[in-house]
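Aim 2 progress update. The chain analyzed this quarter is reproduced below.
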Amino acid sequence: MPHRRWNSRLRSRGRWLLWSILLISGLLFASTLVFYRELHDLDDPVGLSDDGVLDTAVQSAPMAIGPGTAAPSPLPPMSISLPLIEVPKPEWASQFLRMWRVSGPNMCGALRGAGIEMSDWKAASMRNRSYECYFQRIYERDEVRPLSSTFVKVRGNETGDVVDIRAKIIGPATDAKGHLAPAVLRIFEIIVKQACWRDFEDTLASIQNLRNVEYERFGSYLSFTREAGSENNFNFVLGLKATSDSQVRTKTYFSPERWLATTDPRLTDSLGTSLSASCAQ
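Predicted C-alpha cells:
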C-alpha cells in the first residue's frame, strides 16, 4: 500500500510538471511570434508606400472647373497707406505743442510792410550761424544813454526758423490816458498776430496799458515786463520753451530732423508745407 501511494504521488507531480512545461513553452512561443511580427512590420514599407501613392494621386488629379466657375484671380498688389508714412504737418503739432507758423524772413517782411524799417534777414556775423533782422530808432538821448528809443530783433537760424523775438522800449510815448502810442503798439500787434497763437492776443491789452504780463502755454511764452530799477524801460520776449517731459517728447516727434526725405511724388505736397504769414482759420 505504501508503494502504491508513492507511485500515485509521483504520477500526479509528473502530470503537474508536464502541464507547467507546456504552459511556459506556449507563452514563450506566443511572445516570440508577436516579436517577429513587429519586426516584420517595421521592415516592410508597404504601409508608407500606400500613403505616398495616395498623396501623389491626389496631387496629380486635375481640379475640375465647371463652365460657370471663374478661375481664382491673383492677389492685388499691397500698398502702404499714405497717412501711415506722411510727415506730420505743422498745424497738427499746434494742437499739442506750440510751434512757429511763420519764418524769420516772413516775420521781418510783415513788420517791414507795416512801415517798420526792419533790416534784411541775414547772418548776425561772419563767424556766427545765427540769423536775424532788427529795427532800432533813438528818439532822444543824453550824453550817456538813450532817453527814448525802440529796439526790435527777430532771431533765428540759416534755414529761416525763428528762435525768439525780442524788443525793448525806453521812455515810450503815451497818450493822455497813459496808453502806449499806436505806432509802437502796432509792432507788438504784428508780432503776436503773425505768430498765429490767437490766445496770446489777449496780452495786447496789458501791453497797451504798460502793465506787466507773462503768459505761457503749450511750450510757448510771452513776457512784457518793466525793467527793474527803471520806470520807463520795458522788455518784451516771445519764444518757445518746451520744458516738461510731454512737451519735449512732442517737440521731438514733430521735429523735421526726425523724418527722412521722400522721393514719392504723392508726398511732395505734405513735405513741402511752407511757413506762411497767414494763420489757418
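Strands lie at 122-125, 128-141, 146-156, 162-170, 213-217, 220-226, 233-240. The radius of gyration is 48 Å. These observations will guide the mutagenesis experiments scheduled for the next reporting period.
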